[in-house]
Fold each of these.
Amino acid sequence: MKKYTTLLLLIFPLLLQSQSSHLPLGNDAYHTMDRFEIKSGELMPAHTILKPFDRRDVANFAIKIDTSQTSIGKLDSLDMRYIFRDNNDWVANDIVKWEAGKEYVDKDSVFYRPVIIQEKGRNYYEESRKPFLKYFYRTPANLFEINQPHFKLKINPIFYARYGQETGDTSYVYLNRRGFSLRGSIDDVVWFHTNLYESQERFQQHVMGRIAQDSLPAVPGAGFYKDFQTDLWNTDGYDYLRGQGYIAARVSKHINAHFGHGRHFIGDGMRSLFLSDFANDYFYLKINTRVWKLHYQNLYAELISQHPQAGNRVLPKKYIASHHLSFNNILPNLNFGIYESVIFDRGNTFELQYLNPIIIYRTVEQALGSPDNVVTGMHFKYNFLKRFSLYGQAVFDEFMFSEVFGGNGWWGNKTGFQLGLKYIDMLGISHLDGQFEYNTVRPYTYTYDENPINYSHYNQPLAHPLGANFSEIIGKVRYQPIHPLVLQARVVYADFGTDNPGENVGSNIFANYLDRTIPEGSDDDEFGHQTGQGVSNQLLIGQLTASYQLRHNVYLDADYIYRNRASEDPALEYTRNYVGLSLRVNIAANTVDYWGR
């Protein structure tokens, strides 16, 4: 039965009709889509909590905004041009003829609106005026591109070089990443995407220490890794290979599927308490059903259980099944949704009962004898006044309603909450955008007993990177004075508790929750648990970033990062400053706030 199930999963997407490839997480278009949603006063048909977006949805919504009565300025128009260039799979496929005299001129860039050369609308497809060696960069976004009626292909390089120095460290922070991305379609029946890159990297000290000392080591966002040494920069680090790939297709007009290897993010905030993109990629099947105002997503994935350093053996597996239902415009500009997931271990075998796409997993889990880890949640997003977006999440790993309001600190109230606000064009200044967010997760949330079905993958949290037993405040201000330049200031403050040797105060999601530490002032381990218990720590992170887009998806970044950790344990205290420069091509910037804290 197992081999037939696997075969069905492999051939299922190939039997379907056309769909779209994903927009990579971290792409500039995600911020632009937020702005367009808020400014236009209408929600995207594709619900924004579910990421990554399909490129088709992004292009279609941008075209809708451009052809509507929504008032946009020249910087928004330049952002829109970026979207059309980056997603030209889904815009008209003829050469654009530029209309003289209708241009938006900035200090460092010029934007021309394309002529309406089609009777029923615009043509947004743009070709380069001077391709390189005739065949390369024939369009601004793609190194090599084929556009035939029954075959489309786009190939681009991936490159990320970072060099920096942190106080108190005699070695350099270093990143050397090379790879490629490829996407396309065949017969408008199957869409495919893959990217592959190799990295040699030395992180900041808080990450390097965690990797070297942890009994469950992991490189953030990666899987298998090796030690690395370079004489060029006189530094050590880690070498790892990452690859993502999937095929996408449409089952019907309202149902589509993606099948492959990658990551997902469920949330409207900077963090997610449901599912984040912090951990390594995983093998998955995702089915989206969009009809009327509803968006229903099923996600089935194979995860790696906690393990010591990998090498020359098959790692233990566990599995997750999740589904999410959201409702757009339940009231005008209000999105509301519910989430449920279950993680289980059947000795490298999938539990077939969780393949049911519409049942409540808790009922299945209880019918099986309640052996698995079920997490539920709800969320909302409300856009108002064409300037603001208020959003939030609530996650429930386990709780008893009578104890939630009992004030006794019952350990089983394993819950977390998020509340955030986005504010665009702050104080009336174009492209001065802010985002402010609060997250808190109670002790022992996402944990389990001796069974390794905690909420993790490849020794890394699947939700918030801090795990549990914390409160966090994040503020971010983003300013774009001219189109190629983005200035950003970010402040993170986290208050969290950690273990003394031999203790389990609920911050380590890999620890057995049956081995709970008796809270101070309590007679047993059942009650008296409070967020931040254990060794008290306060972490303050300040970051300033200037990012300049030299050409399409080619960025030069300069970063300054301040970290200060105060703690009841003096050995954990430090103050550090980091300064660095980066050059990246076709890849998003990455900063690791937490891993080793």
Note: The radius of gyration is 24 Å.
Amino acid sequence: MLVLLRIAGGVALLLFGVRYLRKGLDRLFGARLGQWLRRVAARRGLAFLTGIGLTIIAPSSTTMSLLAVQTVQAGQMTARQMLAVMLGANVGLTILVQLVSLNLDHQAPIFIFLGFVLFQYSTTSRAKGIGQIILALGFFFLAMFVIKYTVTSAGMGPESDVAKIIQIAERYPFWIAVLAAATATLLQSATAAIGVVIGLGAVDAANLNLAVPVVIGANIGLALTTLMVGWRQIESRRLGVANLALKLVVAIIGFATMPWLIDWLNGLPGELPRKVANVHTGFNLAQAIIGLPLIGVINLLMERSIRESPGSRSRIFGPKFIHTGPIDSFALATGQAMREIMHMSEIVRSMLGDIWTALKTDDERLARDVSDRDNKVDLLDAEIKRFLTRLVKEDIDQGDPLEQIRQLQYLTELETVGDIVDKNLSDLALKKMRLKARFTPEGERELDDFYKKVVENQILADTVFATRDRRLAEQLVRHKERLNEYEQELRDRHFARLNAGMVQAHETSAIHLDLLTHLKRINSSLSHVAYAVLQNGRRGKSAEDVAFDSPI
């Protein structure tokens, strides 16, 4: 029993390494992985190679699954386009198991030391991300050491409890695969499930009769994870089903040829850990060989078998009013950009309205949907900025040079508001639901009133941006100053309720104050457009002055 607990500790360390690797990749790459994916989606072969490349530099199955689903759910790529990337990513993900299979467990302290130094003492986010990735690799190798040392020190003879369990399990390869699939799904990591077998195989406590079904099951579990994450949206569900179906085809072939495959592998030179890693790589190469030429057929089958509900026809999300073709007129181009910015503003306004509804009704699904919508805001932000910067390079008649700056300014403010809704207000709504907290009636009325005034200012800010009306800009500035004063007044009222000993006020105090803070931040960001309009009317102001002279 103690041996099993020690092995479980090694598995936990492996799983922690997987989670830590994902955090390091998020810190290192951020949203850039998604941007790279969108650039190569049009060509199947390039998308496949890019999937391999992405997962070699970012070898995390959880990160890849979430990225694929979020990209499809945001409408930035179709299931057909993403499937080619996923086939390549499945191959690239095996690099992590290949690393685990190397006999590097005695070098784990070196990796941990180097990773710790980079993470602890670096000042840049990129360096810290690299440090976290190196630390994660150190944890992988340390986990292998723990598993191998535990098995060796326990004297794994034919009479030991663990050896008997393994010998019995080897008679039931199908159920081994089912257990491995369930484990990989539960842990959200195929690497952890395969890593245990590699650790046992390194000390001759397991053989290929156990390892091959585990590899098959772990791959099925990884596909199930992608399917579950993307189930609630039609395109991401098609992606998940297609990926799972291809893995099931390879799994069926693997079970049908398993006796021959194991005999062939036993006849090859090399240690068992390397053979296990190679089986994992071979499984995903076989999936790519089968699936890549049939992507069109698979997509057609998915569309016919997984149908959309009437009236919910999905399409690729993207800019409505700007284009990638040649630009003939500066005025026309900036007019198109303005319409696209207003389109983005509508999405941001809907995010703010829906998150407030979710906050009041405890609708967790709506809160998470709002968070997903921020991906669309980020896409539009990137596309509009790319379009506006093209105006400088294109050989066309130049209009007002301040117009580009003014549009870029407001675009940045809208993207900031979207981030506040996604990263702050959404988290607060979910926290309120998790704690089952309730505001006092007075506090809820005050928050509603403050929220409505912020929404009114957002509409006013859109109007100021579109019309450049100085009187409206002055009005927006006055509204901002009044809201700042009102926010402080509402804080004082809340503190008064706390002093009066109202229990509900104490329970929701942190959420209440944070909501006021972030709504105030949103109002401040939106009000910057007024300063740009007012300063643009002053004579003698240069473009740089307008860009950097707005008060915060």
Note: The chain has 23 helices and no strands.
Amino acid sequence: MNLTGKIKTIGKLLSPLKKSIIPLFLIIAFLLIDVYCNLTLPKYTADIVDIGIQNTDFNYIISVGTMMMAMVLIGVFATIGLSYFSSKVSAAYGRDLRKISYEKILKFSNFELNKISRASLITRNTNDVYQIQIFLGLFFTTILFSPILGIGSILKAMELGTNLLWIIAVTFAAAIIPFVIIFIRTIPYFKIMQELTDKINQTSREILMGIPVIKAFVRQDYEEERFRKTNEDFRSVNLNVFRILLVLLPAMTLLLNLMIVLILYFGAYDAIQGEILTGTIIAFIQYATQIVMAFLMMGGFLVMIPRILVSGRRVAEVINTEITISDGPIDTIDDNPIIEFKDVVYSYPGSEKETLKDINFKLEKGKTTAIIGGTGSGKSTILNLIPRLQDVTGGEILVNGNNIKDYKLTTLRDRISYAPQKAILFEGTIRSNMLIGKEDASDEEIEKALKMAEVDFIESLEDGVSQGASNYSGGQKQRLQLARSIIAERDFYLFDDCFSALDMNTEAKVKENLKGLKENSSMLIVSQRISTIMDADEIIVLDEGEIIDKGSHDYLNENCNIYREIVSSQIDRSKDLLYDNEESSNYVLDTSYLKKSAGGK
């Protein structure tokens, strides 16, 4: 990334701070007050020792002591104000940065989601943002405070007029060496730590989601060992980092104490010779201590830089990810739209093989289109292309003659209802899940949709839905998802094999109920069941991404070998194969019982 790109990235990362201009000014004000109080106190101490105690002037000691107490109180209130507003600004920044990152993630297509894993996205939007938030809080309370205090203490120490400044310079030079070593040693580890955090998140997610499979195949020991190894790697890296960092505190403490000893040793000679007063030595020690402590705080900040850079880079990668699927200029679609696939080609990123080739068909009002084919033939991919969850790599999809890419995404998706292959419900209630399909749906509309989907297993709309809808069976989840997908009136209803968990009788009832949708809209059904699609107006047979044939059930049953093989694999051959004559090997498939189960006559 060039310099201009880095500046833009930093600007995006810092953009949430624009909302906190007033608190930022208050932070600067409290910080300056706090620094002033810290720089004033050593001088008061020197005056008490050199003037008050030296002259046994009790009134002077009381007067200066009162001023010291006032400065301490002001400093305390300034520190509280600084901490309060720093925490408020950093917390608001973390919230807004997570929001920006989250909103960007919601725009990701399948292409972007394949580039950055879901486990990594979770870590970046939580752990990495939190690291930046913590750093920002420390920046206001420590990083800005330290150099101002350090520079102020140096100036104040110079005002004392001693010849002991060389001790501070030597201490600085000695302290730089361990800081440089620690900084260089820890940089590689912080990147590894964040990557291992991703790995722990991903491994935990896989194990938790796969618990039934793990138990069924008695693989607990293997998975425990897999997690133990990942966890052990993370522990090992953390230990290496903190072993290095823990050297810093005792090393700096040793240098600080050595500095004080040197000041007392050489200051004593000056005091004996009358070149410096005792109070001045005490004040100089205090200023020197503040200088070294400021340096220590800045050193702690420098040690944090590698981890913050890693976290910032990871969050910036999300924010800067170029969205491959973006809005077009058209924001309206005429009534009774038609979707046309025209020589559509699609290849997954990094794949040399085309998933879809030369796909041509239309979706029109009052028409039900079905797609059937073997596993991996591209059925679900076709459905994903319509709401632009993915974009074609060749050919075009037209809506009323305009390329689908020319429409705004919200305009396009508002006309489409999509029920994915895997039933996805969200934690909450039946009502909250139904309102996802139509935000302003009334209870009557919800109950009508539930009835159409044959949802007869709930007591009320306030029935709870647990995380992952684990309190419902597969068939129940599919029916609830179907209800959600049909609650709003849409021009196109896309059903991706979402009847697979229903028994034949329930499926027939649901399909009969859905016939009313066909009058004002178009339906596209992907299924492996012949009974689900056989009454469709047009059935498209896919094989290895190509349309082999299309037509009605009866036409395909007579003319398409692949379709006939699918039909024969789903019926009892001994019951439903009727031979034309005893000597011929040709046969006719009797699928009348399938028509009955599908709701036909």
Note: The longest helix spans residues 58-106.
Amino acid sequence: MDIYINGKRTQTILGQTILEACADAQVTIPTLCHHRDIAPQGVCGICIVEADGKEVKACDTPVKDEMKIFTHTELIVEKRKKILKEILEGHPNDCLVCEKGNGNCDLQNLCYEYEVPNRNKSSEGSKVQAEGIDNTTFGMVRDMSKCILCQTCVAICRDVQKLSVYETIMTDAGKKIVIRDGKSLDESGCIACGQCLKACPVGALYEKNDLKKLNRMLRNREKHFVVQTAPAIKHILGEEFGMEPGEDISGKMLTALRLLGFNGIFSTDFSADVTIMEEGTELLDRIKKGEKLPMFTSCCPGWINYAEKHCPELLDNISSCKSPQQMFGALSKSYYPELEEIKGKDVYGVAIMPCIAKKEEIERPAMANDGIRDVDMVITAREFAKLIKMNHIDFRHLPESDYDEFLGLGSGAARIFATSGGVMEAALRTVVSTLTGEVIKPLEFQEIRGFKGVKEAVINVDDLEIRVAVVNGIGNIKPVIDQVRNGNSPYHFIEVMACAGGCINGGGAPIASHRDVSEKRAKGLYSSDLDNGLRRSYENPEVTRLYDNYLGAPGGAKSHHLLHTHYGSRKQ
């Protein structure tokens, strides 16, 4: 169809909304409640435009042939300003200290663009209501004094993650977004995936932040600081500095970590390889015995939270392996101190993750050995970028450097842990080779790659048929779980990632995590795998050294003491 946008003729297709057609034509229309992963909300009204002489919302109005659209008339701009002023009347005046700042707050950015000043420092006369802050979880905070009732969190949790933690209710004062059944976040069915947090256009939902504490500790040299970087971080961090999604920025990142003052700089890719050795051994043992099948992966703490809260009867089916983050933490407080001749209690472990649920994972009582916590602090990719900026490090122009020895080497299989299907593919590369005694080719398992909700594969090894499934996003898990509950699951091994796309789209990743961005991030991961001389976990010489000199055999007594754990029901 032909339409006219601000007097300029352009072509579009039937079924598009005005917002989509304008985006294709490189014409920006402001939004606050719109999110590309959910249906149009039509709540905030800031996307108002003039179409064929009528004022309509661009997000939910379909285009028509020969439609004449004006996006920034004087009247439209004034109406947008009025909407922003009304929102600010019920909004706190704390932009300088708000966690959503640093260019990530859509409301603040629009106020700058439309020259709508925030109130002065006195909030007298405003409509701001004192709201309780929900601080009950280790990972995120809910501050409803900043809520603008866009209802995006409600839609993301209900329609994408299928959890329905939030709901919109009517009160005497009007609409209000609450936790279902009047519960706190901790008591609710929330799994700390953080997808609502990323979708929130303001600071009503944000991750707990320890950056000031970490910055002070690094400057004061209070401990021996060890840091691990998750596979995803290497391909998403650059976006915070204007670089392309998927670009491998490992070298610059490692230089930045040295400038920040870390003593040992290592890769979670290493412990991902260790995870495959442990989890692969466990899977083969279960298949041999025919017990506790199918086996679920245990790498994603959002999935573990889901299992404990929503289907605890399946906990025995989950691998007893700790996640790569926690395995690395355990080794950094035991194996690494022996190599460096220091005490485990003097090591302070920081993990840089694309995940909100990782902040909760480190607080689990079982994630410790001999009273020493596996990991002391988790910061997200967004927080890491803030830390770099706080210290005035010019990231884009940094020289490149390498990981430290012993715990810094990872295979290509470990790198693809960060995308949906990656853990399964890494496991299969090792398990199939172990069963056959041969190096399998090709190494790529294309059928479990991509963004489909549930992906399946059948691998024939001699007389054994191994059936696997990959659940891409917790919203797609119900039919897979129902099969296990009913005793008719056809699978031996199931990977679950709570966030669609995997860790590259985690709750702690850069905000712009739409499908096209996630695809670029995944492409970067797979390219890194192809370029790696080590593409199977068991080929990693540092992993071999770990088992030869410290752990013994995979699945042995020492491995179980350090690298395995247990879970318990939290069903309300």
Note: The two ends are 53 Å apart (CA to CA).
